[in-house]
Amino acid sequence: MQPPQAVLTSGGLDSAILLAHQARHAEKVTPLYIRSGLLWEAIEYGYLQQYIRALHKQFSNIEPVVILEQPTADLYGKHWSTGAGRVPDFHTPDEAVYLPGRNLLLTLKGLLWCHLHGIKQLALGVLGSNPFPDASPSFFKHFSTAVGEGVQDHELEIITPFGNLHKVDVMKLGKDLPLQWSFSCIEPVGNLHCGLCNKCAERKNAFRAASLCDPTTYAKPSIRTAPCTV
Questions:
Q1: 149-191 pLDDT, tens per residue?
Q2: Which ranges of 88-197 does DSSP label H, i.e. alpha helix?
Q3: Is 154 exposed, middle or buried (0-12, 13-18, 19+ CB in 10 A)?
Q4: Are 32 and 66 in contact (CB under 8 A)?
Q5: CA atoms lying within 13 Å on the CB side of residue 211
Q6: Which of 96, 157, 149, 94 is nearest to 127 (CA)?
């Protein structure tokens, strides 16, 4: 059994599956949710609470969610992520949803929380196929070392348990989890996934590639995935 860990948790498929995965292997896991002022966060956090309540039926070692604030409006200004401008749609490449330095900001906040609470490992659900510069093994290694030097805590470590996996592999790990309570939309319609944005496309493709039924209700199901049957 691994020592206590914190898990950076947005509630999307990868981090949702990671939270359960780490709960199977660590003595205790604390989900960290970092609010940045992005337009989907209120809905996302509501789903995350439902997901963790469902996980508690299987895991008693998941601590209550810790909310940290990391506002970015002063950095990104008028941007699609804060409600200004067109949200990347179903057909845009993954690069269209890149937020510069987002992992840098999130991991800094998460590592400092870990340091102040005596936890040495921060787990992220980064995949081997992630193309962004702040999601590379080199970045995580050097950044955790730099933060550790800055607070004189040289045991601090960022871990990426899914770092050698692709999306389909991670989905298969989560096939028995309550993924209907994960959330992967950047332009929700009410409390629903919109069904038309870049992240909804990624979500649909993930279920399809793993040959899993998609339990998601989409407001506008432009491309249908296999429905779940009782």
A1: 999 999 999 999 999 999 999 999 999 999 999 999 999 999 9
A2: 102-116, 137-151, 167-173
A3: exposed
A4: yes
A5: 0
A6: 94
Contacts of 154 (CB under 8 A, 6+ apart): 145, 148
Classify each residue of 197-225 as buried b or exposed e, where b means 16 or more C-beta atoms within 10 Å of its C-beta: bbbbbbbbebbbebebebebebbebeeeb
Question: pLDDT digit string (tens) for 128-142?
Answer: 877 778 888 899 999
On the CB side of 106, CA atoms within 13 Å amount to 27
The 3-state DSSP class for residue 5 equals strand
Structure tokens at 149: 């030097």
Cα end-to-end span (Å), the chain: 35
